[in-house]
Structure formats: C-alpha cells, structure tokens
Amino acid sequence: MRRRLVLLGATGSIGASTLRVAAAHPERFEVVGLAAGRDAQGLQALARRFNVRHLALAAPNSAGIPHGEAALCALAALPEADLVVMAIAGMAGYAPTLAAIEAGHDVALATKEVLVMAGEEVMRRRAARGVRLLPLDSEHSAIFQCLQSRASMPACVRVGAETEPPAEARVAEVILTASGGPFFARPEIDWARISVAEALNHPRWSMGPKVTVDSATMMNKGLELIEALHLFALKPEQLRVWVHPQSMVHSLVQFKDGALMAQLACPDMALPIQYALTWPDRAAHSPVPPVSLEQMQGLTFAAPDLARFPCLRLVFEALPKGAWTHPVLTLANEVAVRAFLAGRISADRIAATIEACLEAGAAPFDAIIRRAEAYVARAAH
Question: Which of 337, 95, 55, 75 is CA-nearest to residue 208?
C-alpha cells in the first residue's frame, strides 16, 4: 500500500528533493496535497505532473488556489494523508505543523523554526496525539539514525515509554557538523562589508535564500542545536558543533560507553528525506549515489571560531538561560535576515539585532518581532 504524502513547501529545494524521492519510488508514495508560498504557476505544474487535486498557497493569487494560513492548515490536516512533509521556510510552518499533529498525522519536519519557536509545545502535542516527528535536516537525520537500536528509541518517535526506553539516557554528547558556509576559510570576516551575493554563494548546498544566509552566519547551526534539544530530549551541555567542510559526515553521537557513531552520505538532501519517508524501513534503492571509501579520504574537522561567527556564539550563550531564548533567537534572526536580503541592513546587523532582542528579555512572539523590526529600522542604511 502506498504512503500518501502532503508536501508543504513544494516549490523550494526541500520540496524538489522530496518529489524526486517520490518519483523514484512510485510503488511506495502517492502525493495527495501540495502547497507553496506564492508560485502559483510552479505549484500548478507540479500538480499536473503528480496528479494532485489538493493545493494551497500562502499568498493571495489569481489562479483560484486557496490561500493563507487557514488554507495551509487545512491541507496539513487533509484526512487522506499518511505523512505531512513540512518544508515551509520560517515561522509560517508553525500553525500547519500543529494542524497536522492535531489531525493525527506523522510529520517529516524540515522547518527548524517550528521547534526553535515552540519546541516544548510541539513535542507535548506530538506525544499527546501519539504521532511521530521525523527529522528531515541531514544533521538531525544523522543523529536520529545513530540513536536507534532494538533497545531504545529517540524522543521524537517514542510513543510508549514502557516498551521503548529513552535513547538519550545512553548519550554523552551529540556533535552536529557544519559546512562552514562560504566564509569559514576566511581568516578574517568583515561582516559589515559582506554582500548578499557573497552570503548566498554556498559551496555545498543549494537552499533557499534565508537558509543560505543562516548557513553563512552559522546561525543555521545554532537553530539546529535548539531543534536537537527537542527532537532528542537533550541538555544544552550535551551539544557540540564541529566544522566539516566536505559535508560527508552529517553528525556524530558519543555514547557514555565511549563509542562514537557517525552517519556518512553524499551531500544530497534526497537521502535524509527518503529515510524519513520510508522509516522505520530503508528503501532498496536511492536517487543518491552511495558514498565510497575513496570519498572519505582527507576528511577534516575544526572547532568553529565563535569570535568570527557571532550568531553562533549568541546561541551558545543563550541556551543555558532557558527556553524563552529560543523564539527570540529565531524571530529576531528572521527579521534581520529578511532586511539584509532586501538590502536594508549590512550583515553585521544580523547578530546585533539578535543580541539586542536577547538583552530585552522574554516576550510574546509579536512583541519580539516588533522589537527586531524597530532595531532594524534604526540600523537601516
């Protein structure tokens, strides 16, 4: 029986990789719903290709496609869905994720801001509904794969504690790897002079503009640390980041008995997506070439320089202060990155916006956004 998929974020890079996996396994998957941001033409083309009737857009459109948050939530809760793939960028994915969970659907999550903003609430609702939250990011997929055994299950898919002991009880630390983006090799980085084009020139991954800028500042890795806290029930002191420019080792887990486990694969998002879609099984084939021993020659790792990457430094400083910092980090960053991409502020103002909002303390989501927007307005060119 084929698994029925709803895909939110269909026209983005994660959406393209998800549809690539679905097309490679027509016997296993049927796409029953598609959503995008504002690209009505692109969405309709995908609907024709995959024979999908249920569509939604975030933005108003002239094509007659249902739009807005309510339309996205309705699609996420589509009764005939088996799994909802959440790949909408930024905080727009929060309400649809909750809608999918409340509908009793498992969720394959690529939108890290959902857990960064409200991880405790999302995980509480996941557990209450007995659904599973499957990580799509390559780093979290790697951790997820390393943590599974016949003796224990990770928190994000655990549904019966009495029969599924916690995997986190055996973990000493988790190491997320980072490519370092376009600037790690630079001995000095003058963020005030970094152009948008430079920030978008990622050496390894093809992603949307917001995520690509986050990778350049390494804020992406900071948000992934927070996501890992919730997915795997970890503590801040158990989390590490190492820069691995080859992007072959996607993350590592150090266990309390001293063993170190890693997951390696070619840098292609189709593989972690395929694993999430087929879990707990593994597919018999993949659209991604297998990694070879020859490719593993000369792999390198380095500790990140937090002085050169202040966004990541701010995350490490904020984590011990508690969960109130999580929405501040993601919302302030989202406002600042949007302003940077629009040419309103320089790249150094991204970290400055985040720091100013952290110093202002805890606040509701809308208040955090207003604070960040006010700071950006003052810092604008």
Answer: 337
- What amino acid occupies position 221? K
Which residue carries 């999918």 as its tokens? 100
pLDDT, tens digit, 9 for 90 and up, residues 87-129:
998 778 999 999 999 999 999 999 888 998 889 999 999 999 9
Give CA 354 to chain center in angstroms: 19
Tracing tokens 């380095």 back to the chain, one arrives at 302
Cα–Cα distance for residue pair 222/228, rounded to 1 Å: 10
* 207, pLDDT greater than 80: no
CA distances from 255 to 24, 67, 146, 224, 239 (A): 35, 46, 10, 20, 13
Spatial separation of the C-alpha atoms in residues 2 and 272, rounded to whole Å: 19
Q: Annotate 274-300 with b (16+ C-beta within 10 A) or e (fewer).
A: bbbbbbeeeeeebbbeeeeeeeeeeee
3-state helix, strand, coil in the chain (%, to 5): 45, 15, 35
- Please tell me the pTM assigned to this model: 0.93
Single-letter amino acid, residue 315? V
Task: Name every residue whose Cβ is closer than 8 Å to that of residue 138 and which is 6 or more positions away in sequence.
Answer: 250, 251, 265, 267, 269, 271, 272
